[in-house]
Amino acid sequence: MTLSEENYLKAIYHLGRDAKGAISTNAIAEVMATKASSVTDMIKKLADKGLVKYKRYQGANLTEDGRLYAISVIRKHRLWELFLVEKLNFSWDEVHDVAEQLEHVKSDKLIEELDAFLDFPSVDPHGDPIPDKDGNIQASAKVLLATLKTGEKGVCVGVKNSSRAFLQYLDRLEVSLGKELTVLGKEPFDNSIAIRVGDTAIHISSLAANNLYVKKL
Amino acid sequence: MTLSEENYLKAIYHLGRDAKGAISTNAIAEVMATKASSVTDMIKKLADKGLVKYKRYQGANLTEDGRLYAISVIRKHRLWELFLVEKLNFSWDEVHDVAEQLEHVKSDKLIEELDAFLDFPSVDPHGDPIPDKDGNIQASAKVLLATLKTGEKGVCVGVKNSSRAFLQYLDRLEVSLGKELTVLGKEPFDNSIAIRVGDTAIHISSLAANNLYVKKL
DNA sequence: AGTTAATTTTAGACAGAGCTAAAAATTTAT
DNA sequence: ATAAATTTTTAGCTCTGTCTAAAATTAACT
Ligand SMILES: [Mn+2]
Ligand SMILES: [Mn+2]
Ligand SMILES: [Mn+2]
Ligand SMILES: [Mn+2]
């Protein structure tokens, strides 16, 4: 499997998490920052290898083999991200690009030993679950902050969007995973949400609240 | 810089350590396990980038830029090898292939933090020096075991050949870096060398003795 | 339904890295 | 000093993964 094939599998997997039916060529092209024609070529190749199901003009879906392969790459990505934060002093907004490279290193021993070195962690620095060796993913009961009602409390457990801009914004707000917060109310004017984190009360935009996962308390 | 270009630079650097003048196309093809015609193409590309000096039919040499780039890749290789042994329970004969992949990951922060995480080590698991951030390489006073005379003592500090076969052979002989040994004598018949390591006396072939570095005591 | 718009696929090219076979240059032998 | 052998380069192909432009198909609108 080439680096490129692995990235396509990951992209199709992630798109499949949201969307219901088949994944469109255009959607894949969008997230891969490439052209639809290139996607068509690659999808055919992956279909030949039995990793995706594909019918002309009807989009693609991962086969079970493809799904497992995608998950194995995601496992590596998230373990490396955690390694970078835990052991090498990276911050959560610096790890993604490096993990994009490290996830393609081929060595079973490497990844299993890394897993052990990190003490078999269950989530990465962004709160995303780390699949186990066999591809099982621990589901967690997280909801978007935006869904909490006034007065409800939650603890931050993850981000939906892990762009540097959002992560650094959260840093400036001093919102980090593990922190408890309480919803004080919603502003009808712009749908922003007033929350209390520790001692301080802050306003968080609707967009931000729709990208921050919390576990209800 | 592509993965392939980095590998060529490393190969030319290592060949230059031994050989005196320019490095021949054939020699590079040999160590890269490729064909001379492919080497010619790549050398031209590297020459265009100012990383090697090249005159048709006259072989190649690294420029100062090329030398520094090669050393930076070797630095990464050796730091990763040490990481694998020290932190992830790899043995010294398992690390090379994985390090060949990891050495191409691009991130200055990654490698500097890895260096710090390992406590700024000076040698890799095979006794090879780890270049510092600026490309300086600590020279050490090692000599081949084969050069020791009867009665001389030394401590193992490195291997010249780090093939798995040789490393595993040393493991079976219970010869590892840091061990002290004494030369008991040479066998005229096959040039093998009798040595004492710890309590036990063993015979080591001439070939092996020409691939094991010791520091004289 | 019929036309227009959008999506998807095909056809043809290209850059990177490699190969084989043939030509050119250099080295070695007679 | 020639001829033979070896090394190196060139020419032409192949394989990935990408692109553009054009054709085919599907979706959206009167
Ligand atoms: Mn990531
Ligand atoms: Mn992540
Ligand atoms: Mn190595
Ligand atoms: Mn080494």
From TrEMBL, chains A, B:
List UniProt keywords, sorted A-Z: Activator, Cytoplasm, DNA-binding, Iron, Manganese, Repressor, Transcription, Transcription regulation
* GO CC field: cytoplasm
Query: Example GO molecular function term?
Result: DNA-binding transcription factor activity
Q: Which domain of life is it from?
A: Bacteria
The residue ranges of the HTH dtxR-type domain are: 1-63
Query: What is the first-listed, main subcellular location in coarse terms?
Result: cytoplasm
Q: Where are the transmembrane segments?
A: none
Instruction: Tell me which Gene3D superfamilies the record gives.
Output: 2.30.30.90, Iron dependent repressor, metal binding and dimerisation domain (1.10.60.10), Winged helix-like DNA-binding domain superfamily/Winged helix DNA-binding domain (1.10.10.10)
Q: What Pfam families does its record include?
A: Fe_dep_repr_C, Fe_dep_repress, FeoA
List the subcellular locations.
Cytoplasm
Q: Which family does it belong to?
A: Belongs to the DtxR/MntR family.
Q: What does this protein do?
A: In the presence of manganese, represses expression of mntH and mntS. Up-regulates expression of mntP.
Quaternary state and partners of this protein?
Homodimer.
> What protein am I looking at?
Transcriptional regulator MntR
